[in-house]
Specification:
single chain; mainly alpha; 3 domains; 12 helices; 47% helix
């Protein structure tokens, strides 16, 4: 069998993968990954055409190619035992990346559980589609589907990475215990694998499980759900930004500095301008001495 990449690790050896972040010019292009995948298996991400968004399809290609590099050949790539070994490799894998604060130094980074589960889900989805199109032996997907993901503590102890408006970098913001517990319960109960936490329902009908999609819930869909609950509790005029204002106003009463960090304002002055109330609260001078 032809190897997809001679630089990949031997899956029969119990070694820990250490990857030094390559220069952009040395990275394998998406088109090259698609070509190599097709050359190795006889098919590639084109089997997903029209089923997922272009961005999701691109991510599937990237993740699936990482798996193929680990498997090295077509026979191994269709072996669920190799898939399980790849899962272990992802958990233990170390990336050495340049330390921006200390030029010349390298930092050790590991993949988050969320990233690992996304990569595992991408391979499962590709195998499912390939089997449905009779491109791989029957029962292959069932074997791959038995390899479970890792614990979704990738929310970093109730921290969730978000990116604000007009921002290019992600930052961590805290989730409440209730929100964290609800998300964990949803991910455990959800009957499909997806790259996304919040997924949508397609079509209409009473069988919600049958309509559940692996595609992400849209911004409009999310707001429609929130709006529905707001109406039910007697707040029909609630707007999306009101939720942010509520958090900012409440945190301003407790600790403006924390409020600034949670909302992502560049300066404390901006937070004070929008969220710190000018009114003098009743009893403000009580208990000073």
């Amino acid at each position: 069998m032809r190897d997809v990449d001679d630089t990949g690790p031997d899956p029969t050896e119990a070694t820990r993968t250490i990857i030094v972040a390559p220069a952009r010019t040395r990275a394998v292009s998406l088109e090259e990954k698609q070509r190599r995948t097709s050359e190795l298996l006889g098919w590639n991400d084109s089997i997903l055409a029209g089923q997922v968004s272009p961005s999701t399809r691109k991510q599937y290609t990237e993740d699936f190619f990482d798996y193929l590099r680990f498997a090295r050949n077509a026979q191994a790539a269709l072996d669920s035992a190799i898939f399980s070994q790849w899962r272990t490799d992802l958990v233990e894998r170390i990336y050495l990346v340049p330390d921006k604060e200390s030029p010349g130094e390298m930092l050790e980074k590991q993949l988050s559980p969320n990233t690992i589960n996304r990569m595992l889900a991408a391979v499962r989805h590709m195998m499912m589609e390939a089997e449905e199109k009779k491109l791989i032996p029957p029962g292959t997907f069932e074997q791959f589907n038995r390899v479970r993901g890792v614990s979704v503590k990738g929310l970093k102890d109730r921290l969730k990475p978000v990116r604000g408006k007009n921002k290019t970098e992600y930052r961590d913001v805290p989730l409440t215990r209730e929100a964290y517990a609800a998300i964990q319960a949803w991910l455990t109960a959800r009957p499909i694998e997806s790259l996304y936490i919040f997924t949508r329902f397609d079509g209409r009908g009473e069988d919600a499980h049958a309509r559940l999609s692996a595609e992400p819930l849209t911004r409009q869909g999310a707001w429609k759900i929130i709006k529905g609950y707001a109406v039910r509790i007697g707040l029909p005029d609630v707007k999306p930004h009101d939720l942010r204002r509520l958090v900012g106003t409440e945190l301003a009463k407790k600790n403006p500095r924390v409020g600034q960090l949670v909302l992502g304002h560049a300066s404390i002055e901006t937070f004070y301008k929008h969220y710190v109330l000018d009114e003098i609260p009743e009893g403000a001078t009580e208990g000073l001495y």
